[in-house]
Amino acid sequence: MVKILIGTIVGGYVAIEIKAEDAVELLNILRKTLNKGGNDVDDSIRMIQHFDIFYNIMHKKFKEYLTPRKDVGDLIKGNVLVDRIKLIKKDSEKYVVIVFDKSISEEKLLNILSSLGYEILT
After folding, report:
1. pTM over 0.85, yes/no
2. Residues 120/45, Cβ–Cβ less than 8 Å
3. Strand runs (DSSP E) across 1-122, as ranges?
4. With contact defined as beta carbons under 8 Å apart, do 99 and 85 qualify?
5. CA nearest 112: which of 48, 12, 20, 36?
6. Contacts of 34 (CB under 8 A, 6+ apart)
């Protein structure tokens, strides 16, 4: 069973921490379920798939988060799913923190994740 750590961060954004290998599948499921996400999800998936490269870029530029590209039209329509992501290495494991757009509520996300059978940690 896939474990997901969920919580809110400064500014009221909902964030989850998940293993990198499970993050791409989760983003695709959330995109279909919530009917949101365009370039932001595609770019986030690209960053996760090329984890090591983007992890090195993140640390060379002293950035805590990476911001995926967002289409202006999606921003205006409220069609953005991912606000930013953070790539983390814990021992030999790779994790991703996905910070969702403010339009995504924690309650809605919890309902979707639990219905899909994810183990949720708070």
Report:
1. yes
2. no
3. 3-9, 13-19, 82-90, 93-100, 119-121
4. yes
5. 36
6. 81, 104, 108, 112
Sign of CA dihedral 52, 7, 42, 71: negative
CA distances from 30 to 5, 27, 35, 52, 64 (A): 16, 5, 8, 24, 24
Confidence of residue 41 (pLDDT cuts 50, 70, 90): very high
Q: Report pLDDT digits (tens) over 43-90.
A: 999 999 999 999 999 999 999 999 999 999 888 888 999 999 999 999
Residue 117 backbone phi and psi in degrees, to 5: 90, 15
Order of strands, sheet of 82-90, starting from the edge strand that comes earlier in the sequence: 82-90, 93-100, 13-19, 3-9, 119-121
The rounded distance, in Å, linking the Cα atoms of 106 and 109 is 5
Cβ neighbourhood burial of 81 (10 Å; 0-12, 13-18, 19+): buried
